[in-house]
Every structure is written in C-alpha cells, then in structure tokens.
Amino acid sequence: MALLAMEQYGRMLCSLQPGLTPAAGLAAIERTRRAGSVPVWMPARLALSRPEIAATWDITSDSLAAWLAGALGGRRLLLVKSVDAADDSVPATALARRGIVDPAFPQFLLRSRSEAWCIEASRHAEMTAALRRGGAAGTRITAPESARSTSRPIAARNARANIGADAVRARPR
User: Fold this and answer.
1) Residues forming a β-bridge with 90
2) Rounded to whole angstroms, how far apart are CA atoms 55 and 68?
3) 55-88 as b/e, with b when 16 or more CB fall inside 10 Å?
4) What tens digit of pLDDT does each residue of 90-132 get?
5) What is this structure's pTM?
C-alpha cells in the first residue's frame, strides 16, 4: 500500500510540473535523464522484485532513496524532510533513533556508498542554490562505522516508521 501511495504522489507531481516523467525501472530512469527530463521513480515494481528490500514498515522512502542512489551509482543523496536535523553532521543511526529516518536507513546508506545530506523542506532556496552549483546543503549524514565490515542482508525490525517525502539526486560518481 505504501509503495502504491508513493507512486500516486509521484504521478500527481508529474501531472503538476512539466519536465517530470514517471519512471518505473533503472533503465527508464536513465533514459529519462538522457532525454533531458527529470525522472520521478515509481518504486512498486522494482522494490517488490528485490530481495534486499524487505516488505516492512522499517523500510520507507528514506531507505528506498538510499537504495536507488546506490543502484544508479549516485554520488549524492539528498533527503528533504519535515524537520531540521540541526547539526552540521549527524550519524544515520542517530537520525533513525530520533525517528527522522526509518530504522533500516543506516544500512541502506552504508550499502549505497553515496554521500548523504538531510535538509528541512522550508530551506528550499538554500537547497536549490546548492543543487544548481553541484554542491550540498543541510546536514551531512554519516553512514554507520561499525557496520562497514558486515555484508549481512538488512533485517526487518518491528518498529514502525513514517513515510516521508524524500528526494534523491543521483549524480554519477
């Protein structure tokens, strides 16, 4: 249900903004980017087909964005959240404990190998300027150090997480 809600939201955004194009798979995302449009990921089909993405409320748009950034070879991930992390740098595990990102996000971030940032939605002017110059804005999110040596599958937990509106900006490494 959550994946379908994400797709409905994405389709609504595409209908409101010219230049946004729905894209269900990795190849479609790349084709859309090459054509000069901005892909809006429709996650249901791809997420449901990947064994590393468990069907649990512990995996929300935060973890899906980190997974997608890694799958696309994205250099930088930007999460747009409804709250400000209020630090220059914060561990992903701390954001998960505070409920700002979902519980599975630290492991997905680690595996993505992407640089990650978090910014509060009202700071859109700062975010826009940073994206235009190819830089970053907001709070740097650091991947968990202790998990760097593990290669276990991401395990589902029982805690529930809210689904937030996130953005992923994939740039080739």
Assistant:
1) 141
2) 16
3) ebbbbbbbbbbbbbbbbbebebbbbbbeeebeee
4) 999 999 999 999 999 999 999 999 999 999 999 989 988 988 9
5) 0.79
Judged by DSSP in three states, 88 sits in coil
Which pLDDT value is given to residue 7?
A: 95
Structural domain boundaries of the chain? 1-49, 52-173
Q: Residue 94 corresponds to which amino acid?
A: A
SS (H, E, C) 7-54: HHHHHHHHHHCCCEEEECCHHHHHHHHHCCCEEEECCHHHHHHCCCCC
Closest CA to 39 of 61, 16, 52, 22: 22
What does the pLDDT look like over 34-57, one tens digit per residue?
A: 999 999 999 999 999 999 998 888
- Tell me the C-alpha distance between 140 and 154, whole Å: 23
Closest by CA position to 79, among listed 163, 162, 166, 6:
166
